[in-house]
Amino acid sequence: MGSGKSSVGNALSKTLGQQFIDLDHAIEQVEGSSIAELFKKKREIYFRKREAAVLFELLSDSENNVLATGGGTPCYGTVMDQLLIQSQSKTIYLKYDVDTLSRRLFDEREHRPLISHLQSEAELNEFVRKHLFERGFYYNRAEWVIDCTELSVEEIVEQIVLKLF
Hints:
Blueprint: H1 5-16, E1 19-22, H2 23-31, H3 35-59, E2 65-68, H4 79-85, E3 92-95, H5 98-106, H6 121-139, E4 144-147, H7 153-164
Parallel strand pairs: 1-2, 3-4
């Protein structure tokens, strides 16, 4: 969350001439509801099951595309294991330090169900720190880990393209 997956994914797709797909938007289309509403009405477990189902439906498409997942996507069930065995897929962790992520997320928190209840930057910083610790096992299993803390979107895209080719 807050790492710029959608911004980087969109820029990367343009560079590669491929379609960009944001998993959250795809879920919203399938469900006919916003992510925030799904969390509120049907709760996180329902959301995670639908998220995995939509993800693997998208991955079964033979078209090359750039897909941005949600921050929690690889951390539930066997999603990360499945992503790593997909021969046509490359997994990338856009890594940032806690303070950078907290700064980026603070003004966006009302649009993000998992952090909308946090009122101070200190609370958000603690939430980010805790989640990075809990999710780090999954994130660090990605095929490529890119430290993005000091990089622009263009520089991140350049690093990914260099790894691809």
